[in-house]
């Protein structure tokens, strides 16, 4: 089962979550919606605010356990082109979860651009294909 969760204050990360959702045929929910069961793949998104990820996203990550999530694939937006992915991955590792190497990030103000939306969708499809292939 593929799950998508994100934290987004102003909608940029949500826009990326929605293009990932459309690409993989799943629904994107913000982190107030708990996982509904074991997630084979969890796409997890967030952004940078004053050099940090949101406390609420940190709290959500603390609720995850390696038994409940197969692979966690991070996506993010930020003012800076590197996004928030490294910050999110660091928090996952702190909680004993090894994030997938694949990640998607973009500059927040470009998150609704058609080209970026297409890249996010392609990233999601390729990631699912790769992870499915690795399982075989
Ligand atoms: C209060 C605030 C603080 C921010 N601080 C940073 C920052 O330290 N570094 C950065 O790269 N971007 C920063 N940004 C830009 C956001 O990371 C960027 O706009 C992101 O796409 C917001 O995601 P969201 O729309 O999903 O909330 C900040 C934005 C806000 C509103």
From TrEMBL:
InterPro entries: Flavodoxin_dom, Flavoprotein-like_sf. Residues 4-94 form the Flavodoxin domain. Signal peptide: none annotated. This is Flavodoxin domain-containing protein. It comes from Christensenella massiliensis. The lineage of its organism: Bacteria, Bacillati, Bacillota, Clostridia, Christensenellales.
